[in-house]
Amino acid sequence: MISKTDPESIRGFLEDTSNLKSGHTPGVFFPETIAEIQELLKNAPREHRRFTIAGNGTGTTGGRIPFGDFVLSMQKLDAIGEPTVLSADRAIITVQGGAVLQDIQKKVQASGWLYPPDPTESLCFIGGTIANNSSGARTFKYGPTRNHIARLLVVLPEGELLEIRRGEMIADSNGEFHITLPGGMTKTIHLPHYRMPATSKHNAGYFSKAGMDLIDLFIGSEGTLGVIAEANLMLFPMPDSIISCLVYFPSMEELLGFVDACKKPANGLRPRALEFFDRNALTFLRKQYPEVPTAADGAVFLELEAAKEETDGTLDRLFVTIEASNGMEEESWIALDRSEQEKIREFRHALPLIVNEWLSRQKESKISTDMAVPDSAFRELFDFYRNSCERHGFVYIIFGHIGNSHVHLNILPRNREEFVEAKTLYRTFVAKAIALGGTLSAEHGIGKLKREYLADMYGEEAIREMAEVKKCLDPFLVLNIGNIIPDAFLEPDNH
């Protein structure tokens, strides 16, 4: 097995996009087979080793950054199988945990299939997206990664292999799973008793609900319960045609009216993506795209799928909806061919690059939210974000997945004082989202950065229940310590 301890090889594993700077590790292991992962974990207690699983460094919450533990890199386990057709409208593909999402997408599309999850960063490892229940723009129609996983092969922290096929292991009426592992060991997992928030996106802590599937406990568990070594992904047929559209609006009221109209089934649009840019985000984008109208208070990007014979009718319904919502039709951008759609994609993805370039001159990190709320509470949270930032005089942008009532607020501090102010304000945003029945994290997970807020959402007893699940599957505490569950809750005397 390959391992490296020299500083040059280690350096890249001490960062992701979270801006955590203090990570450190004695070395990095690069297993090339699933058996080698098993060996590392089985021997870990005897060798006094702990491991932090490393994806491809695209996470935002510090989950892959080690603080004294060894790194287990998944990059050598990157095999991608061939799509297996199950029916006219379903197929599966088997992939290893270190396969890059972008490579998987290209392969399935070349075969005429679609794997719907589309996180903004397509260079992530598929195992990381499963461990984080990743989502993206197409989540509005297709849901997060959880909805598209048919099977997992997991290396448990004691080195045992656990194969889970969706539908085969369901929690009993007491909220328990009783598992017999290949080596004869038995495990009884008691699910936490908290209630999940009523949001369409949620990724904060272990999934738990009555009658749930065991596979869903591991999806979104951020590598704390096992190493996702292999997965079967569910595929859909590629749509005949895609309509991409960017619509500007003179006010938030008209923009939200358009979003509501798009979400109504009777409208017939059924968008697969509904994304938002506020007026400040458009101001940043105008530096690179001067055609962005100055009169716009916001914009909505949407994607529609259509059969060939339905394309004209879908376009007609789209134009009627834009006009009825007082959208700025003349300035809007409709893309029907792949080349023009690529230009809109570049427009959407230009925002973080422009913002990061601006931030680099301020020498301070941005403060970002990842909360989502029920649809009925969205406007209240949005206004709270905007009014709070205006009151403090911050530079800020709001953008993201408005179809799921999940937008990202980025506060962009110009100095240390503003950074400290924004960090304090962040906790009020957490409290507001929770009070509105929302979630602390809709897609980016908890990792190391947000675990201190988890008890605000669930209460301390719920965190203890999560810790018991962790200790049941990882009794020697060797895997991804520091993610999700604060260390204090894993100590033996914490009751």
What does this structure look like?
The chain has 495 residues and is α+β, with helices and mostly antiparallel strands. The chain has three domains: 2-73, Uridine Diphospho-n-acetylenolpyruvylglucosamine Reductase, domain 2 (2-Layer Sandwich), CATH 3.30.43.10; 84-237, Uridine Diphospho-n-acetylenolpyruvylglucosamine Reductase, domain 3 (2-Layer Sandwich), CATH 3.30.465.10; 241-435, Vanillyl-alcohol Oxidase, Chain A, domain 3 (3-Layer(aba) Sandwich). The protein contains 14 helices and 19 strands. It has helices spanning 7-11, 34-43, 101-110, 126-131, 139-142, 215-218, 252-263, 279-286, 311-324, 338-360, 378-392, 416-435, 454-458, 460-473; strands at residues 2-4, 28-30, 51-54, 70-73, 84-87, 90-96, 113-114, 149-155, 161-165, 176-180, 186-190, 227-237, 241-249, 273-278, 298-306, 333-335, 367-368, 396-401, 406-411. The chain has a seven-stranded antiparallel β-sheet, with helices on both faces. Strands 5, 6, 7, 8, 9 and 12 form a six-stranded antiparallel β-sheet that branches. Helix 11 (378-392) packs antiparallel against helix 12 (416-435). The longest helix is centred in the last third of the chain and has 23 residues, at 338-360. The two termini are 40 Å apart. The mean pLDDT is 93.
